[in-house]
Design brief:
This protein is α/β, with parallel strands linked by helices. Helices cover 37% and strands 21% of the residues. The protein has 9 helices and 7 strands; from the N terminus they run ααβαβαββαβααβααβ. Strands 3-2-1-4-5-7-6 form a 7-stranded mixed beta sheet, sandwiched between helices. The longest helix is centred in the middle third of the chain and has 19 residues. It starts with 24 loop residues before the first helix and ends with a strand.
Length: 300
């Protein structure tokens, strides 16, 4: 599961704008960047896993890059590679360019603005590694999107998609008030919201979310999957607490109408800075997230 469309979960990327047109990416950019930075340990482990088989890539494409946190990690992990960050938001790409300059990678870093997957046709060269972090599921025909990504791979190139995993957890099952199991009930509402989002996408195609099978159907060999954890136990640092506050606040704002009244009341307390039982003050707040990466190789 773990689609997590409540902001604070996957808004660090915006490779498509079809269901995000109401968002002000320039305003959201600092928040998205700080949240992606919080997940850096998870991304670093994922990239280290990829680096065991992707050796000395010439061109890496970050499709749906957002503010470029992962693009920057690619630049550090593969110091000989050129990096192209692709995103539908120019304000986020500007932050990616600034980050690359700050990391000393500006001379081998470029950006490409446009919606996935069509914008990939504008790449000047085929990619040795194409990374898509939670961007494919925003496209109606995921199989066709993967095929379009494969077309932009060099022979022997690798496509890696971060999709699925497990729902994030921030609090114990029983938080001392209200009915235990709040986050599990939010997950159920989120599942329904995700399904509706998928059904309403232009050209939506119902497909089993068997990502290795989808990669194989797109023409890739040697598919593999690996799940990576972000485990920040209590007591969390301030930026992790801020992430939890923002995530639950946006969950309440976006999903509150679909929750039962008693669960909305629990969320109201959890995000109220004046309530000593809120996540602003609780000593038991933690962040536990699991994201899965699926990859495959284009035949030579």
């Amino acid at each position: 599961m773990a689609h997590h469309h409540a902001p604070g979960h996957d808004e660090h990327r915006s490779g498509n704008t079809h269901d995000h047109e109401h968002l002000d990416w320039a305003e959201l950019a600092p928040l998205l960047e700080s949240q992606a930075e919080l997940f850096t340990p998870l991304y670093e482990r994922a990239l280290a896993w990829l680096a065991k088989e992707v050796t000395d890539p010439g061109l890496i494409v970050d499709a749906g890059s957002g503010p470029g946190v992962i693009s920057g990690l690619f630049a550090e992990t593969f110091p000989g590679a050129r990096i192209v960050a692709v995103d539908g938001s120019e304000p986020l790409l500007e932050r990616a360019r600034v980050r690359a300059e700050r990391l000393g990678a500006g001379d081998r870093f470029a950006t490409l603005a446009g919606d996935m997957p069509g914008v990939l046709a504008e790449l000047d060269y085929p990619a040795d590694l194409l990374w898509a972090s939670r961007s494919i599921h925003h496209l109606g025909d995921q199989g066709a999107a993967l095929a379009a990504c494969v077309e932009r791979l060099a022979p022997g190139g690798t496509l890696a998609v971060m999709e699925g995993g497990l729902p994030s957890r921030f609090l114990p099952r029983d938080i001392g008030f209200g009915r235990p199991g709040l986050q599990a009930r939010i997950d159920a509402v989120e599942e329904n919201r995700f399904s509706r989002m998928r059904e309403e996408l232009p050209g939506s195609v119902a497909q089993a979310e068997d990502w290795p099978a989808l990669l194989t159907a797109a023409g890739l060999h040697h598919t593999r999957s690996r799940t990576f954890l972000l485990d920040l136990p209590a007591p969390v640092p301030d930026r992790a607490r801020a992430y939890v506050v923002e995530s639950l606040t946006r969950t309440r704002d976006l999903l509150g109408a679909y929750l039962e009244a008693d669960d909305r009341a629990i969320l109201d307390r959890l995000v109220d800075p004046d309530d000593p039982a809120s996540v602003h003050h609780r000593p038991d707040v933690f962040v536990l997230a699991a994201h899965t990466v699926h990859s495959g190789v284009r035949p030579v």
